Amino acid sequence: MRQSKLGALAARPWLLLLCLALSRAATATETGGFISIDCGLPGTTSYVDDTTTLSYAPDAAFTDDAGENYNISAAHVTPELARIYRDVRSFVDGARNCYTLRSLAVGLKYLLRASFMYGNYDGLNRPPVFDLYIGVNLWKTVNVSDPPDARVVAEAIVVVPDDFVQVCLVNTGSGTPFISGLELRPLKSSIYPQVNVTQGLVLLGRRNFGPTASKSTSQPRARAQSPS
Ligand SMILES: *[C@@H]1O[C@H](CO)[C@@H](O)[C@H](O)[C@H]1NC(C)=O
Ligand SMILES: *[C@@H]1O[C@H](CO)[C@@H](O)[C@H](O)[C@H]1NC(C)=O
Ligand SMILES: *[C@@H]1O[C@H](CO)[C@@H](O)[C@H](O)[C@H]1NC(C)=O
């Protein structure tokens, strides 16, 4: 039932490339409705991230009980490294493994962000390449390549046709898919008017022109707060 509904979407050319030149991606209407997941975090207890002061939940409740949790290699843990990057969920089995985010508002605009840092979590020193989907729509080919502490952040702005959305990792034969973090933020309907139920936007890049702080704000953690 759900699959066929998502299937109907596949034919629509809803992904439009976007080259963003904005320091602030978006402004959420509400502070509620945030979903912040630390993929690979064991247990059932959430924590509050020091930098963003947002609460991050473990991911077990959002997966089909697939995959395994790993810590990244200690060699790649620095004091500044955000907690979501310190552990990952890795999907050795199955060609396609999905996270399901529920209780969304049908027809509302959302920002989705998926974060990846390999950090040699499997000790193989072989960063994988795999595909990331929103439902049945290809979102991004994740290529973490070198160095092992490189971070890849995928973002998309979509209008959800259902009260849930699935984010899926697809094994394309170039290593085991893994994920560090997954976030969803509701957006005001009036921003990004290009985005509707048949067409979404995928982030190509984000630049902060004229930051007031001398420190670079291009780190993924700094960006994590921009929609709030
Ligand atoms: C992962 O790291 C956490 C925090 O340092 C530690 O408590 C936990 O035992 C580690 N897990 C594994 C499987 O090494
Ligand atoms: C991944 O990125 C590396 C480095 O940029 C590149 O050499 C390699 O061809 C890429 N792999 C795929 C499958 O795109
Ligand atoms: C979404 O926007 C595109 C481009 O503006 C337009 O062609 C399409 O008809 C719109 N879809 C809906 C359902 O409004």
Task: Provide tags for this entry.
228 residues; mainly beta; Jelly Rolls; 8-stranded mixed beta sheet; globular; disordered N terminus; disordered C terminus; binds 2-acetamido-2-deoxy-beta-D-glucopyranose; Malectin-like_Carb-bd_dom; Malectin-like domain-containing protein; signal
What does this structure look like?
- The chain has one domain: Galactose-binding lectin (Jelly Rolls).
- The chain is 6% helix and 36% strand.
- The chain is built from 2 helices and 15 strands.
- The protein has an 8-stranded mixed beta sheet with strand order 1-15-11-8-14-2-4-3, with no helix packed on it. The protein has a 4-stranded antiparallel beta sheet with strand order 7-12-9-10, with no helix packed on it.
- A hairpin with a 6-residue loop joins strand 3 and strand 4.
- The N terminus and C terminus are likely disordered.
- It binds 2-acetamido-2-deoxy-beta-D-glucopyranose (3 copies).
- One 2-acetamido-2-deoxy-beta-D-glucopyranose binds next to loops.
- It holds the Pfam family Malectin_like.
- This is Malectin-like domain-containing protein.
Number of helices: 2
H/E series, N to C?
Answer: HEEEEEEEEEEEEEEEH
Rg measurement, Å = 17 Å
Q: Which molecules are bound besides the chains?
A: 2-acetamido-2-deoxy-beta-D-glucopyranose
Structural class: mainly beta
Sequence stretches where pLDDT stays below 50 over 5 or more residues: 1-31, 216-228
The appropriate CATH architecture is Sandwich
Number of domains: 1
What is the fold named in CATH at topology level? Answer: Jelly Rolls
CATH class: Mainly Beta
Characterize the overall form.
Answer: globular
Spatial strand arrangement across the major sheet: 1-15-11-8-14-2-4-3
The amount of helix comes to under 10%
For the sheet with most strands, the description reads:
8 strands, mixed
- Record field, number of beta strands: 15
Average predicted confidence as pLDDT? 83
